[in-house]
């Protein structure tokens, strides 16, 4: 196989959920296309790679050297700060329109297995943000896993602020969830957190 | 969402089997990566888009302005020419090591539904190749569908050469195929083409 095509397939294959067969498909689709999709994609990718960087305040990817749309939006300064793992979580929450405050992306979860240590978390400016932005509530929307809870506890102790309330998303049976498909751990949490009617 | 990221996601989402969620994942993985994968991929893609073109003889993608590895390889001049739809079929056949002649990529199948007409097929130089390369057998390895068979008949009549034999891949039960999973059409073909033992 031609070395340029082979290199391209290998790079595509390493992307999330693509794999070697998918990489072949994508490379062929782009190279056989006569409308210039390959060049368009390459240009857009280079443009984004060069000009996009994390917001210095919250970590949301935005135009390099600027503050992101959430941190700029004064209507979002409602005293609530939602701590999430990465940008895709921000997009998910935004799509649901459930939250109207500001975000803070920590960029990972503490884990011995994948080597994510406290210094890898983007939390250096959290205390500063609490003061500057008059934050009254920090809402943790981290994955409901051991790593998520560990990270949450670590961040609370690292902030050490008494003038904010901390909250986390409720655990329980998802909407439309049939009981026989729910795992034991979730059932235990749902029973423990039952609400009186 | 940032317009540069949005544009990138849309371009990725249009690639085969990626979709909007996959596009988000891929764009995020590339933009959050600190090892320069995004720039690498963009450079490789631009390089390939600019310097890769179909071989003027058989249609296999190769370095622009050169003849492909198959057409250059004298050991492949065995008088056999395998007609396939696109380059991924060539890769599939090469992986199986079942064929050692030369290829001819026609680039599509005749179909009213997707508007592929006879002039869209890459067959203009087929007669010339038969003469120049002393082709004695043309093997059709096109999809076993109505469009594949239509295209095959059209190409045979378009070539109109009497000094070559034409063949097509055998139809039947695939290796390891259980009869109760085989469709009626395949079973009919397999019965019609039964071999005496």
What does this structure look like?
Two copies of one chain form a homodimer. Chain A is built from eight helices and six strands. Chain A is an alpha/beta fold. In chain A, the strands form two sheets. Chain A has a four-stranded parallel beta sheet with strand order 4-3-5-6. In chain A, strand 3 (80-84), helix 5 (87-96) and strand 4 (102-105) form a beta-alpha-beta unit. The longest helix of chain A has 15 residues, at 37-51. Chains A and B meet through helix 1, helix 2, helix 3, strand 2 and helix 5 of A and helix 1, helix 2, helix 3, strand 2 and helix 5 of B.
Put simply, the count of helices of chain A is 8
- Domain count of chain A: the total is 2
Order of helices and strands of chain A: HHHEEHEHEHEHEH
Report the sheet-strand fraction of chain A. Answer: 5-15%
Strand tally of chain A is 6
Q: What share of the residues of chain A lie within helices?
A: 40-55%
Basic shape of chain A: globular
Mean pLDDT across all amino acids of chain A: 93
Task: Give the helix/strand class of chain A.
Answer: alpha/beta
The greatest interface between two protein chains, and residues involved on each side, is: A-B, 49 and 50 residues
The second-level CATH architecture of the largest domain in chain A is 3-Layer(aba) Sandwich
Task: Output the keywords.
6 strands, Dna Topoisomerase Vi A Subunit, Chain: A, domain 2, homodimer, alpha/beta, Helicase, Ruva Protein, domain 3, 4-stranded parallel beta sheet, 197 residues
């Amino acid at each position: 196989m031609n070395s340029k095509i082979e290199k391209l397939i290998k790079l595509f294959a390493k992307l999330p959920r693509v794999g070697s067969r998918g990489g072949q498909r994508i490379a062929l689709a782009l190279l056989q296309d006569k409308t210039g999709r390959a060049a368009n994609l390459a240009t857009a990718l280079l443009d984004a790679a060069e000009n996009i960087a994390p917001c210095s305040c919250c970590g949301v990817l935005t135009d390099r050297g600027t503050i992101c749309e959430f941190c700029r939006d004064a209507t979002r300064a409602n005293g609530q700060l939602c701590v999430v793992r990465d940008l895709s979580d921000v997009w998910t929450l935004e799509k649901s329109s459930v939250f109207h405050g500001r975000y803070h992306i920590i960029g990972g979860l503490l884990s011995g297995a994948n080597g994510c240590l406290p210094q890898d978390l983007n939390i250096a400016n959290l205390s500063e943000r609490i003061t500057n932005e008059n934050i009254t509530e920090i809402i943790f929307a981290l994955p409901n896993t051991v790593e998520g809870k560990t990270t949450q506890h670590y961040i609370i102790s690292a902030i050490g602020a008494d003038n904010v309330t901390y909250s986390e998303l409720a655990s329980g049976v998802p909407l439309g969830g049939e009981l026989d498909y729910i795992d034991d751990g979730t059932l235990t949490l749902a029973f423990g957190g039952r609400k009186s009617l």
